[in-house]
Backbone:
């Protein structure tokens, strides 16, 4: 690390906590080593300082954490014909993000989101500050300039926790929101759909705990926004993997949300359930069951969200394991955003380039650490498929340390997948509308002058 920081001293200056980049190409060449040292530094305070340093360097090089709010407001007025991919990167985050930025530069793409959910922050061991730093390090390394959209996905209230202690659960989410905004997540999806009470007699009463808490948390977000930033907030009406949402539920939620939010800007989009499940449904032999999305309902709900409420449209979760030929339908139905995660994880685990011995090492870890999660009647293949997302966190350094000749073919597979997704979702060329609608605001954060010592 001393060698990296010594070289960095010749490329940047820090004056009164403010970073200036003097030699951007040299900084780019150092970024692989700098972000590695930041992520794996054993001293927690030093780690935070280094992560913040990386973020400030990236901002000075033109990669600026931003809110997608103004693009989504434009989508609410005039749908541009594309669906924004929101990508949860659970492992090999730096390498994968580099591939995404490389493809974005090549295809002139500006409308894409990096996100991480409440649960993923835990089991992948990627706190918001680290996630932002790794994504922005990748942007700087690839020479990407412009708004970078980083999102808190499924900031979810866990039903059993809420029922046993509502204030404790709400305060946990409020603390997570504060941590995320401090780390420059300027896009946050509130998921209080877990609190919907289907035993109530009317749709509005069923949705009431959902929209009231979403409004409370939205107001909390508005109170934490840095000057010049309006955080894009998403709501959710159908718990993913549950029953399909309806246009009537959408209206019940949005009408109730408007009544409950006393002042300030509301949400920019609404997540709905149309037949998917997170991670897909795995069959006993380890293959995935075919999923049928109700695209007609998705179209109706996107139309209602846009025309009646001015939102960007409806959001589809749990889509990365769909067949490739399904993705073109999202822009055709006016879907504003689609969430993608497990498909990327599957490429990493199932790639022929991943050494069998390493995969077995991860699976042995899962067998020991996740034994209690094994369901009765589950085959070995089903168990590993459902738990292997948890093989990234504790073993993060081992994934990161995989040799280049292993990672390169995995990244090529991912690049091909991103190429297909970006083409089918029609985001190629979207940099132009992003540049017109989103004006990045650099929120200055101080860096310790001693970080380079």
Residues:
């Amino acid at each position: 690390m001393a060698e990296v920081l010594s070289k960095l001293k010749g490329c940047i200056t820090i004056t009164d906590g403010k970073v200036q980049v003097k030699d951007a190409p040299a900084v780019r060449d150092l970024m692989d080593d700098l972000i590695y040292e930041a992520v794996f530094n054993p001293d927690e305070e030093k780690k935070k300082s280094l992560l913040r340093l990386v973020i400030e360097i990236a901002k000075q090089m033109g990669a600026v954490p931003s809110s997608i709010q103004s693009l989504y407001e434009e989508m609410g007025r005039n749908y541009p014909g594309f669906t924004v991919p929101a990508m949860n990167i659970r492992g090999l985050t730096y390498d994968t993000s580099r591939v995404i930025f490389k493809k974005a530069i090549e295809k002139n793409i500006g409308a894409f989101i990096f996100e991480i959910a409440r649960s993923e922050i835990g089991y992948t061991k990627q706190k918001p500050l680290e996630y932002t730093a790794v994504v922005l390090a990748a942007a700087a390394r690839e020479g990407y300039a412009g708004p970078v959209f980083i999102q808190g996905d499924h900031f979810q209230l866990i039903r059993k926790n809420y029922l046993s202690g509502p204030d404790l659960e709400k305060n946990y989410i409020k603390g997570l929101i504060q941590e995320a905004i401090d780390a420059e997540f300027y896009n946050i999806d509130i998921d209080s759909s877990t609190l919907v009470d289907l035993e109530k007699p009317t749709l509005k009463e069923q949705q009431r705990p959902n929209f009231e808490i979403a409004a409370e948390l939205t107001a909390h977000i508005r109170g934490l926004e840095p000057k010049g930033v309006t955080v894009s907030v998403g709501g959710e009406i159908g718990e993913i993997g549950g029953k399909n949402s309806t246009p009537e539920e959408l209206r019940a939620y949005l009408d109730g949300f408007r009544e409950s939010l006393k002042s300030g800007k509301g949400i920019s989009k609404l997540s709905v359930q149309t037949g998917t499940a997170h991670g897909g449904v795995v069959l006993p032999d380890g293959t995935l069951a075919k999923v049928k999305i109700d695209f007609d309902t998705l179209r109706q709900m996107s139309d209602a969200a846009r025309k009646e409420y001015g939102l960007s449209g409806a959001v589809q979760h749990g889509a990365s394991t769909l067949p490739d030929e399904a993705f073109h339908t999202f822009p055709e139905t006016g879907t504003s955003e689609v969430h993608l995660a497990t498909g990327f994880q599957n490429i990493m685990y199932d790639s022929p380039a991943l050494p069998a011995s390493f995969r077995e090492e991860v699976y042995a870890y899962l067998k020991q650490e996740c034994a209690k999660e094994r369901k009765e009647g589950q085959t070995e293949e089903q168990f590993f498929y459902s738990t292997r997302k948890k093989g990234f966190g504790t073993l993060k350094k081992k994934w990161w340390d995989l040799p280049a000749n292993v990672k390169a073919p995995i990244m090529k597979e991912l690049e091909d997948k991103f190429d297909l997704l970006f083409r089918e979702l029609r985001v190629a060329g979207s940099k132009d509308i992003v540049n017109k609608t989103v004006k990045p605001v650099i929120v200055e954060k101080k860096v310790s002058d001693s970080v380079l010592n």
Observations:
- The chain has three domains: 2-61, 64-347+407-437, 355-404.
- The chain has a mean pLDDT of 94.
